[in-house]
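Assemble and predict.
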Amino acid sequence: MPFTEALRLAVATIFASKLRSFFTLLGIIVSVAFLVAVVAVIQGMNAYVRENLTGAIIGTNAFQVRRIPISLGLLSDEEIRELSKRPIVSRADAEAVERALPDAEAVALQSGYPTPVSDVVYGNQSVGGVLIFGVTPPYLTVQDYQIAAGVPITEIDLRGRRPNVVIGWDIADKLFRTPESAIGEKVRIARREFTVIGVVASKGTTLGQSFDGFVLIPLPMFEGIWGRRGTTTVSVKMRTPQELPGAMARAEEAMRLAHRLGPREDNDFTVDKADALVAFWTSLTALLFTVVPAVVCIGIVVGGIVIMNIMLMSVSERTREIGIRKAIGARRSDIRKQFLVETVILSCLGGIQGVLAGWGLAVAVATFTPLPARVSTWSVGIALLLGVASGLIFGVYPAARASRLDPITALRSE
Amino acid sequence: MTDQAIIRLAGITREYLMGGERIRALAGIDLEIGRNEYVAIMGPSGSGKSTMMNVLGCLDTPSSGQYWLNGHEVSRMADDDLARIRNREIGFVFQTFNLLPRASALSNVELPLVYAGTGARERRSRAEEALARVGLAERMHHRPNELSGGQRQRVAIARALVNRPSILLADEPTGNLDSATSVEIMRVFGELHAEGQTVVLVTHEPDIAEHAHRVVVLRDGRIDTDRRVEHPVGAASAVA
């Protein structure tokens, strides 16, 4: 039997019982849709992190001198124990880095993880869940913060230990009528009174997450209230991305000198740029990319077994047809081809429907949730390939069974 | 063996194991059927009639003995070669028609040509020709369930003829038909024989067998009688 004939026959048989074909394929459809949708969401988040998040958290053209690297979550216990022996990054370190980088746009010192969360109270109103950062004045430059009203924190606030704060847009928006009206007002944070001297312009939302719900407090004051953080970080902003590698090398050298490290000693600090965050995220998603295919493979195998069962049922239902075909001259290979092509076409259809469903799901996610989604061609390719492969693998047994039927017995069956 | 013999059976036996018991369905058959003969094979149930039909139709292989069909020794053939013989040399007509229910009359008739590897265009024209030959030119796009019993059997005959087989093998072809339709179908066989087709008919109905020109009666897996029919039914009308 020519291949085109087998193809035509398969399509006719499948479409003769559409509902049954659909239910046969449900496992494959769901697995493939899951693969396409999840990969789309992960890919979308990857792109989003690369394009939006890294700039928002570290700042553009910026790098950090940290005690603990950003990718902490992926380190072994051994490595973490090693890291905990490192000294805390100090004010003196920040000054050493600043001296080594006279061309830097800004060098700031900021309180690190864990960032305290507090209520900000104004009169009888309050805003909860506000992130409190202890910073030095250049921090605003590093973060590209624009002052919408009032003035930024200054060196005078720092040295004079003045209880002055700069608030994020969301806080001003919730507590005051206008940003301007916030200036000079007294707010209470952690049962202490502070004067609002400035409001930072909104940076908008990233991943549905606002980055404007913060209060900036002069670092010495912050440390007086919440204590010194073990992860105090030096942030450096350069003017162009080209300057970053050289600047990072000089900062490293300055830090080694400040910490009096011998030539054979390892760094007891880490110099990271935004790439480190991307790398951290990428390694996280790499983990997801190993888990998702495993889940999908299980789904495909289960779906394939369902297809195999239905095809075995179909073979026994069509025993007489097989008998007729054999009686008028079908060879074993003809019958085998007929059923194998049918199974492969069936599972291909499952793959296509799955891709469409997954695509729809990804679009729905992108539309109705803040999660971005990007359908990638390779996931569609893999999904279709899995569909065809499952058809080939799980179609072999039913097809072989059909081809081995004895024509006399087959013709006698009802 | 004369060169006119299209079927030659020599010492054919066929044994089955059924529930541990050896059953001898055919116990040594010697038979020659010449080109353009019209033979009816008869016998009571259990006489080996069906086994004979299966062996003749190359659906079954004999336990021993030799079977030549149109010069091929089919008794030694493997599965795929037998399939080719069934496709090229034998046209089957069954009691229950055995048409594919979801395919049109035309598609059913085309089927043997599909397995013969004939091209689509030639397939179609030959199938149309065969359907016209049995008087169904008007109904070729109908499905079997839209046709009467007699029409279905005509479709089956067209399918059997379409690949120009050396023998037409009919197993109780009128068993599911009323007597008027039976006469009609037997007339078709008569006409085909008159045109030169070799016809082998398996039946247990004596009046159907009387359409043939030779009747072979089986009993207990052996040939009991083998006689010429003096005045076959319908022969005169076929000649006329």
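Chain B touches chain A at residues 54, 57, 59-60, 79-80, 83-84, 86-88, 92, 94, 98-100, 102, 111-112, 114-117, 159, 163 (CB under 8 Å).
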